[in-house]
Structures are given as structure tokens and as C-alpha cells.
């Protein structure tokens, strides 16, 4: 049987997959063989457990029909698409008329395809005139986006995966690449081992992660002391003269004030603040300073912070002062979390941006988009819309009349989950567009729209290294599921925008979108569904090609190879930041810093991976990691149950005592929402303070305390088995209602 080449729909590594039906395709029992696509340039045939098992969940517990209810305490009833779409259009019109367009919000996701994202931007930002489209990328990549824009003049990671095999020194900070971007790490690890000591691997993480275990140097810093660490490295680079004066002179701006800031970070002080030794700090600086090429990788340990943008810019500073960019094996590389968060950025999928890496605040940018969308001048609001957390605050204050959620599960993944749930409960009208049912957010929805997911719609995704892959449909859509972009377009037409939503196929939507990238850093005018289907994945920039000959001309895989940056004067900008410290530092009442993150097998809120036996067996239950000395003080052993409490909520977890975490720091995986475990929600504990520049929440650090659980408290607990039974019951109920 023929196989389909596509992209893994989980992480931003973006591995190529080949999917072949094993048995006769039949929506209920179908069976696919999934393997790595050897021809995919990013992954070269490799896959991790998530990609390999993806087919095991695509047919389970799907949301099949549109469902509605008037209030949250009623059961859902099945309705036709016409009925659901009319109700939505009617509601939007009413809210726009009575409260204004700013009362309409859409909260999307890096798991939408580019066509979905683009169509949603047109609907909200163009036709309705509100920039209230934000995505879960706000919780994920927005600090990296802000840092790139401020330091380089544009978003866009300047590096590529080949750099993993060309660098002399890899500096991994705030990233557990081995578990979260496994195939990127495989490529780096293989090369690092092959080079036997000639290539250095530095990992900065308060935990000794799977990633850190491979490092030549692991800096287990105190949480959120990254700026101090990096300014300390800069201090040594300057003192030793391990800098690139020519690059600084010709390609940058703002070095003098930066050098003045760095002057305040002598090694002894830095080592003390970070909780490492001077020798470790000097070793890191020496490897950075003495290596021909330095590649840094970062993700949530940097971005998810009230100083997220400052941290990412401080990392970029190191590259600028040492001229480590625009060359093979060199550059700052933010690893994108979700499979198409990159495509979302290209399509303008955050509340302050527009398609083609444009900014809402820029009048010329707005005008270019309005013209392309055939809308009157002034249609796009000059004010950035509400960012993810501000939407929760808007709901709390009764300022939101329509809350439309697509491809994300905020009732698990937002910070301060009790406050989030209370805000969701206040929503007068929530639409949830998801592929699965139930998810935790369904409990807060008035309308459920069944989404066709990966493999059931044809569309485009861009991975971390700017490689664009066409993902064709290979199976029938279950029930009445529809592609997200089709749903947005249909609502647009019902609101009177027939001309704006005339596209009939996703190929047409993509063709329209790429025109808006012409002449931009992310120029993709040379790409189309057809070309990507014929030629396979292609990296951008990829401007329009006139002839087939020029189509095959090799382009540069890196950005800024001429050391010119898309700022007004062509120079990259140094940033000057001192560390501000944690929003919620530990104190006698809440003496631990709780951090959190991901495990190798699970994906976020488990809507897919929780339904895959192999992965459930790998990670059967949520756990709390604690250092042996902390455990001793609390008289705890591995396997004991505790309640972790913060100022906002609590979670009950089993303790794992491990040397692999700093004293005073605790770790909880983020994957167990209310459907998958009893009272183990990580975000019950987190707070909602955000980075003032990127508006990204500080999910990675909250102050907590730990209380051993008594027999009495345990009585109320359900076992994991009972929890999964209750999930199955919920699913059966849902099916019965159909
Ligand atoms: N298996 C798996 N892979 C995934 C995902 C998944 O759900 N499961 N999700 C994808 C998505 S959307 C994303 S965003 C990425 C996230 O990928 P990562 O960012 O690698 O994942 P996290 O586990 O959230 O956090 C990374 C590390 O930050 C560390 N950290 C915490 N605080 C600090 C600090 O103050 N300083 C430093 N230097 N480090 C700190 C944590 O200990 C943790 O090891 O993963 C993607 N890949
Ligand atoms: N404490 C803590 N919280 C975090 C984080 C953390 O590190 N710590 N990380 C944050 C980050 S980086 C992220 S990215 C978020 C992730 O958080 P979420 O986005 O809430 O997590 P997912 O489980 O990936 O939810 C995606 C949903 O989209 C649905 N879906 C899949 N494909 C499609 C499709 O094609 N169309 C539609 N309509 N639906 C689809 C899935 O069924 C699933 O329910 O969590 C954030 N929250
Ligand atoms: S590394 Fe990421 S993209 Fe590759 S198979 Fe695993 S989850 Fe999928
Ligand atoms: Mo993410």
C-alpha cells in the first residue's frame, strides 16, 4: 500500500514521517505503520517514541459532531454544522454591536497549520478589526520572538540543524533537549561523541536532566540566575580579550553600555549568586571564548520567565560580542516547542504581529496587509490585542463576550489554574475547537466544534530550522470533523466577508499567504503545496523563482551571513540587563522553588499520548522530584505522598528522591491535568506574572512548601486506575450523547 510523506505533528524538531496503512483503512480500527522519512533533511529518518506511536491515538476518543449547550451545567446536545456556525456568527455580530470587536477573543495554538493560522488572522484582525488573536505560543516562544525582534530587527532563528554537526561548542541553556527535542539532541550527541573531547557540550539547568548527563560541563545554577551567569561569562570574555572587535565595530550597536553592565559581574560574585564554582564559570567562558564556533540552544528554562526576553537577549549578547553568528556552527538557536509555532509566527499568529513578520503597531505593515486582504484602510486596529493571560483577566472582568479556543487546552496549560478555571467559568460564550473529547477545557465550553487533525487535512508546517513541510491528508475525517481553516472561513462568510474567504482549498489559502511574505525576512513566495509535494521539504527564505533552473539554486541555510541585520541601520543591538530575580522568591513559609516541564514520552496535556498504552507505561503517574537532603529534613522517602502548596493552590504527588536536582528546587511534570490524575495539576501551583516585554508567564518558578500527606488525607484519593476508569466513563457518556 502506498505511504504518505508528512511531518510529525508533535514537537518543533519537525521530523519527516512516512505513514502507511497496514490494514484496510477503516476509521474505527485502522492501523498504520509509521517510520522516519530518510529523505527529510531535518531528521534524516530518525523519530522518537512520540512520532513512532502517533498513529495509536488518531482514531480514539474523537470529537465527532458539533455540540452546544446554553450553560455549563447542562449536557451538550448534538447540532448540525449549520446550526452551530449560525449560532457563532450571530453571537459574534451581537457582541461586536453591543461591546465592540475587542470583546471577541480567539486563543489558538502552535499545533494549527499555517493555513488555519492565516485564515484566523484574516477573520479576527482584518474582518472583525480586533487583534485579539493570541496563541499558546505566548506561553512558549514569545520571549524568543521579542528577543529576536529587539536584537536583530526581525523574528527568525538564524541557524539550522546542520550547525549541530559543525559547531565546536554547544551551549544548551534552559532546555532539556534530550527529552523535548530528541532528534535534535540525537544529532548533537552523535557528533559530540564522535569528536571525542574536541567538541564541548555545556548544559545550564538546575536539574541534571538527560541532556545534562551528556554534558562536558553541567552548570546546575540556582533557578533564574541565568542573566547573572551569562553576564559573568561576558565579563571573562572581555577581560581575556576573547571577543570579536571587528564584528562589534561593524555589525553591532550598543556595546559600550553593555560592557559597563558586564563590568559589575566579576567571577566570584557570579559564582556565588548562581550557586556554582568559579572554576566552572571560568571553564564555560574559556570554552565559549576559545572555540571557533559556538552554537547556543535554548527553550523554556529561558523563555518562561518574568525576565524571559532579557534572558534571551543576554544570550544573544554573548554571540554578538564574540561574532558567533552567520557562520557554520554558530548562532543563537531557540528551539521551537510545537510543530508549527514557527508557521504561526510567519502567519502573524500572536496579538501584536501580522502575517509576514509584520507588526500591528507599524502603519505601513497594517496597510500592506489591508491591501492584500482587500479591506478598507484602517480595518486593522493599531493596538495589539490581548495576550493569553490578559484574555483570562478579560474574562474575569466580564470584558470578553466570545472566547474561541482552537487546538489548545487552557484548563490545564495556563498558569494559576484555579484562577484560570474561574475566569473560564465566567465566560458567557466559549467555543472549543478540538480533535478529541473529552479534554479538560470542554468542561468550560458552550460550543464544541470537531476539528479534523493532522493526517485528515492538507496543510503546511514550519519547523525550528525554518524548513517547511507539506502534510497531506491520508485518512478520512471522522464523523463530521472539519479543518480549522474551513471553520474560520465559513464563519467569515456568514459574517458577510464572502470576498475575503473565497478560497476553496488549503493550497489556495497557502498561495495567498505566501504573497504576504514577499520581500520579508521569511520570504516564502517560492513555495506552494504543489512544489513542496513534488520536491519535498524546503527551508525559507525561499523567494519566488522565475525558472525551474533558479529553483534549484542553493540558498544559504543561515540568516545574516553578510552580518547585516534587518534593523533601521543594519546593525544588531546589544541589550543591557541586570538580573531582577524571581517574581516569587522562596521564603520561610514557601521555602522551595518549584520548577516544572516535560517528560520524554508525554505530550503536554495528554490528549493524544494519554491514550497510547506504550507511553502510559513509560510514565504511569505524576511525580515530585526532590533532593535527598531536602527529603531527609522532611523525613520523606521515595514513594511517600505529599501535598505541594503554593499561595494559589495545591497538588498531591508521590515523591522521587533524586540527586539530579538542586537542593531547594522541586520538579513536577506538566502533563497531568484533571482528567488524568487526581489533584496533581502542576499549574495549580504556578503564578501568572509575565515578562513585561514578551508578556510570557513565568511558568518555570513558583514558591511552594511541601506537607507530608496523612492517612486521613489519603482516604479521599483515587488510584490511577480509578482515574482512568472515570475518564473512560466520561468518554462513554460522551459517546452515548451522540
Ligand atoms: N516529550 C515532549 N517533548 C516536547 C513537548 C512535550 O510536551 N513533551 N512539548 C514541546 C514544547 S511546546 C516545548 S515549548 C518544548 C519545551 O522544551 P524544554 O524547554 O526543553 O522543556 P521543559 O521541560 O519545559 O524545560 C526545560 C528545562 O528548563 C529547566 N529550567 C527550569 N528553570 C530554569 C532556570 O531558571 N534556568 C535554566 N537554565 N533552566 C531552567 C528545567 O529544569 C527543564 O529541564 O518541548 C517540546 N517538546
Ligand atoms: N506549568 C507549565 N505550564 C505550561 C508549560 C510549562 O512548561 N509548564 N508550557 C507551556 C507551553 S510551552 C505550551 S506550548 C502549552 C501547551 O499546552 P496546550 O496547548 O494546552 O496543550 P496540548 O495538550 O498540546 O493541547 C493541544 C490541543 O489541541 C488539540 N488538537 C490537536 N490537533 C488539532 C488540530 O489540528 N485542530 C484542533 N482544533 N485541535 C487540535 C489536541 O487534541 C489538544 O487538546 O503549555 C504551556 N503550559
Ligand atoms: S523529535 Fe519531535 S518531531 Fe521528531 S518524532 Fe519526536 S516528537 Fe516528532
Ligand atoms: Mo511550547
Task: Describe the protein's topology.
Blueprint: E1 4-7, E2 16-21, E3 32-36, H1 49-53, E4 67-68, E5 77-78, H2 81-99, E6 104-108, H3 114-128, E7 133-135, H4 142-152, E8 169-173, H5 177-180, H6 182-194, E9 200-204, E10 217-219, H7 226-240, H8 245-251, E11 252-253, H9 255-262, H10 267-274, H11 278-290, E12 294-298, H12 300-303, H13 308-321, E13 331-334, H14 341-346, E14 353-354, E15 358-359, H15 363-372, H16 388-396, E16 402-406, H17 410-413, H18 417-426, E17 430-434, E18 447-450, E19 459-462, E20 467-471, H19 484-494, H20 506-515, H21 529-535, E21 538-539, H22 548-551, E22 572-573, E23 592-597, H23 613-618, E24 623-626, H24 628-633, E25 641-645, E26 650-657, E27 665-669, E28 702-708, H25 711-715, H26 720-737
Parallel strand pairs: 6-7, 6-16, 8-9, 8-12, 9-10, 11-22, 12-13, 16-17, 17-18, 23-27, 24-26
Antiparallel strand pairs: 1-2, 2-3, 4-5, 4-18, 14-15, 19-20, 20-21, 23-28, 25-26, 25-28
One ligand MGD is lined by residues 109, 111, 136, 139-140, 300, 304, 337-338, 406-410, 412-413, 433-436, 439, 451, 453-454, 484, 596-597, 603-605, 607, 670, 682-683, 686, 699.
Amino acid at each position: 500500500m502506498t505511504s504518505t510523506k508528512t511531518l510529525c505533528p508533535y514537537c518543533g524538531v519537525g521530523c519527516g514521517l512516512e505513514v502507511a496503512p497496514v490494514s484496510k483503512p477503516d476509521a474505527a480500527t485502522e492501523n498504520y505503520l509509521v517510520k522516519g522519512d530518510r529523505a527529510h533533511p531535518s531528521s534524516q529518518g530518525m523519530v522518537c517514541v512520540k512520532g513512532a506511536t502517533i498513529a495509536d491515538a488518531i482514531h480514539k476518543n474523537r470529537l465527532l459532531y458539533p455540540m452546544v449547550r446554553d450553560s455549563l451545567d447542562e449536557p451538550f446536545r448534538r447540532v448540525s454544522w449549520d446550526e452551530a456556525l449560525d449560532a457563532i456568527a450571530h453571537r459574534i455580530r451581537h457582541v461586536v454591536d453591543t461591546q465592540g470587536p475587542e470583546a471577541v477573543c480567539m486563543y489558538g495554538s502552535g499545533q494549527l497549520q499555517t493555513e488555519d493560522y492565516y485564515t484566523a488572522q484574516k477573520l479576527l484582525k482584518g474582518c472583525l478589526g480586533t487583534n485579539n488573536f493570541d496563541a499558546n505560543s505566548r506561553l512558549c516562544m514569545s520571549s524568543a520572538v521579542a528577543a529576536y525582534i529587539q536584537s536583530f530587527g526581525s523574528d527568525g532563528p538564524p541557524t539550522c540543524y546542520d550547525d549541530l554537526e559543525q559547531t565546536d561548542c554547544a551551549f544548551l541553556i534552559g532546555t532539556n533537549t534530550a527529552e523535548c527535542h530528541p532528534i535534535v539532541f540525537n544529532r548533537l550527541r552523535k557528533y559530540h561523541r564522535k569528536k571525542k573531547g574536541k567538541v564541548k557540550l555545556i548544559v545550564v539547568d538546575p536539574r541534571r536532566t538527560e541532556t545534562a548527563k551528556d554534558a562536558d560541563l553541567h552548570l546546575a545554577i540556582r533557578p533564574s540566575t541565568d542573566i547573572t551567569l551569562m553576564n559573568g561569562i561576558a565579563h571573562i570574555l572581555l577581560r581575556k580579550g576573547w571577543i570579536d572587535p571587528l564584528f562589534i565595530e561593524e555589525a553591532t550597536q550598543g556595546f559600550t553600555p553593555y560592557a559597563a553592565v558586564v563590568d559589575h559581574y566579576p567571577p566570584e560574585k557570579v559564582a556565588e549568586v548562581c550557586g556554582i564554582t568559579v572554576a566552572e564559570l571560568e571553564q564555560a567562558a574559556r570554552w565559549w571564548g576559545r572555540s571557533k564556533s559556538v552554537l547556543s540552544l535554548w527553550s523554556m528554562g529561558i523563555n518562561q520567565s518574568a525576565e524571559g526576553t532579557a534572558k534571551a537577549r543576554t544570550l544573544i549578547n554573548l554571540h554578538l560580542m564574540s561574532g558567533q553568528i552567520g557562520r557554520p556552527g554558530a548562532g543563537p538557536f531557540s528551539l521551537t516547542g510545537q510543530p508549527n509555532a514557527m508557521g504561526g509566527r510567519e502567519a502573524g499568529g500572536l496579538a501584536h504581529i501580522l502575517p509576514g513578520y509584520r507588526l500591528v503597531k507599524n502603519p505601513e505593515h497594517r496597510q500592506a496587509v489591508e491591501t492584500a486582504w482587500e479591506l478598507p484602510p484602517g480595518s486593522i486596529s493599531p493596538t495589539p490585542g490581548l495576550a493569553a493571560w490578559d484574555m483570562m483577566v478579560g474574562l474575569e472582568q466580564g470584558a470578553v463576550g466570545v472566547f474561541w479556543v482552537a487546538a489548545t487546552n487552557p484548563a490545564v496549560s495556563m498558569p494559576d489554574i484555579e484562577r484560570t478555571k474561574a475566569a473560564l467559568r465566567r465566560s458567557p460564550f466559549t467555543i472549543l475547537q478540538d480533535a478529541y473529547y473529552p479534554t479538560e477545557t470542554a468542561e468550560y465550553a458552550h460550543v464544541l466544534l470537531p476539528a479534523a487533525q493532522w493526517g485528515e487535512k492538507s496543510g503546511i508546517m514550519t519547523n525550528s530550522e525554518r524548513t517547511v513541510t507539506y502534510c497531506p491528508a491520508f485518512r478520512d475525517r471522522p464523523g463530521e470533523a472539519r479543518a480549522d481553516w474551513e471553520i474560520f472561513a465559513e464563519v467569515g462568510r456568514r459574517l458577510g466577508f464572502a470576498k475575503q474567504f473565497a478560497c476553496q482549498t488549503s493550497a489556495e489559502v497557502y498561495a495567498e499567504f505566501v504573497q504576504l511574505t514577499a520581500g520579508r525576512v521569511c520570504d516564502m513566495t517560492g513555495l506552494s503545496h504543489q512544489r513542496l509535494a513534488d520536491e519535498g521539504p524546503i527551508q525559507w527564505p525561499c523567494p519566488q523563482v522565475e525558472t525551474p533552473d533558479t529553483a534549484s539554486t542553493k540558498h544559504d541555510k543561515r540568516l545574516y551571513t553578510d552580518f547585516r541585520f534587518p534593523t533601521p541601520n543594519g546593525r544588531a543591538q546589544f541589550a543591557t540587563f541586570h538580573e531582577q530575580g524571581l517574581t516569587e522568591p522562596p521564603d520561610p513559609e514557601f521555602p522551595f522553588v518549584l520548577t516544572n516541564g516535560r517528560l520524554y514520552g508525554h505530550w503536554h496535556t495528554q490528549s493524544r499520548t494519554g491514550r497510547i498504552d506504550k507511553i502510559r507505561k513509560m510514565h504511569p503517574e505524576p511525580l515530585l522530584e526532590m533532593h535527598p537532603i531536602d527529603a531527609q529534613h522532611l523525613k520523606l522517602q521515595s514513594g511517600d505522598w505529599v501535598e505541594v502548596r503554593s499561595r494559589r493552590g495545591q497538588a498531591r504527588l508521590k515523591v522521587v528522591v533524586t540527586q539530579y536536582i538542586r537542593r531547594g528546587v522541586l520538579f513536577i511534570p506538566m502533563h497531568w491535568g484533571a482528567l488524568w490524575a487526581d489533584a496533581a495539576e502542576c499549574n495549580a501551583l504556578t503564578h501568572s506574572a509575565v515578562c513585561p516585554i514578551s508578556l510570557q508567564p513565568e511558568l518555570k518558578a513558583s514558591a511552594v512548601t511541601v506537607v507530608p500527606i496523612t492517612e486521613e488525607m489519603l482516604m479521599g484519593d483515587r488510584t490511577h486506575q480509578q482515574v482512568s476508569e472515570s475518564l473512560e466513563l466520561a468518554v462513554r457518556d460522551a459517546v452515548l450523547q451522540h
